Amino acid sequence: METNQSISIKNLALSFGALDVLKDLNLDVGQGEFLVLLGSSGCGKSTLLNCIAGLLDVSDGQIFIGGRNVTWEEPSERGIGMVFQSYALYPQMTVAGNLSFGLKNAGLPKAEIEERVNRAAKVLQIEPLLSRKPAALSGGQRQRAAIGRALVRDADVFLFDEPLSNLDAKLRADLRVEIKQLHQKLSNTMIYVTHDQIEAMTLADRIAIMRGGQILQLASPNEIYNRPANKYVAEFIGSPTMNFFEGDIVGGDGLRFSTGDQFFPLEGYEFHNGTPVQGPAWFGIRPEHMVTGAEADTAAIRLNGSVELVEPLGSDTLARVAVAGRSLWVRMDGQALVRDGDSVTVGFDPARANLFDKSSENRI
């Protein structure tokens, strides 16, 4: 295994009876990297995390942490700190007691335990809370205490299993910032499981999009957003989801996408394999890459439609527009004056589109 890899997973498989939960999965996580496992419920992301932690025995394959094969080692021997979705704090203990409990069981000297607890409390800004019990803490404070319990282990690798999903929206946003800052301070390897794409995009150095026990794409947030490997990834990332046109890539007077009676020129589109491909395809364009008003008048593609629904969000406005028998989402300026029933022209640049093969749904 390469020395700059903190975690390396080789041909990992896990089955429960006839059900294959993880399938021949390979993954390398760099030293100090923040990797997010992202996917819908049941995709295998938490299962993979539990295999890395040693909480589940794998059916096949190997797991290396820091160059050491830990496939059959106990969780306590793997040099990891884990933060769960539930805080799992001992209610009868203070925060300091919760943080120090595992260290006392490990037989560490009292002075070292106190130094580690105080260091973790300072990093997480929970020093005033050390004498409190969990019942006297808010949800965000409890989760910080749970993170502190992992932090005192002085581990090289931290595993987070949907740690913010029990919190309200504001607390999630606040703690997301704190976790990012924590990684910047510590530079430890972190693997973070979530189904929330905002958490994934804002926290990750790289994102692994999972489905059916496999990794569909492993790349930076920017790469996944701009060049999704397949239609599933394209639909999963982005809210509202990407708009899709069903049709064909055709030749003739330059390469074009044909859908109904519309033709979209593909000049400027960067094909994945460098070779223009003709045949049935999906044409995807994100709502934020569509324009209206004066900008639409000068766009390469212009479509006339009628507004079906308006969602004002303050910072921007989402409009669902009926165009030629299909509904498209368009992201507008927050102060856009648009109402249900308005006639609008929407435009976009085909170079910003994403093309996917109709049968395989892989990026063209």
UniProtKB/TrEMBL annotation:
GO biological process terms on file: carbohydrate transport
InterPro entries per record: AAA+_ATPase, ABC_transporter-like_ATP-bd, ABC_transporter-like_CS, ABC_transpr_MalK-like, ABC_transpr_MalK/UgpC-like, Mo/tungstate-bd_C_term_dom, NA-bd_OB-fold, P-loop_NTPase
Key word Nucleotidyltransferase present: no
One annotated Gene Ontology cellular component of this protein: ATP-binding cassette (ABC) transporter complex, substrate-binding subunit-containing
GO molecular function: ABC-type transporter activity; ATP binding; ATP hydrolysis activity
The keyword ATP-binding appears for this protein: yes
Subcellular localization(s) per the UniProt record: Cell inner membrane
Domain called ABC transporter: residue spans: 7-237
Membrane topology field: Peripheral membrane protein
Descriptive protein name: Maltose/maltodextrin import ATP-binding protein MalK
Gene that produces this protein: malK_5
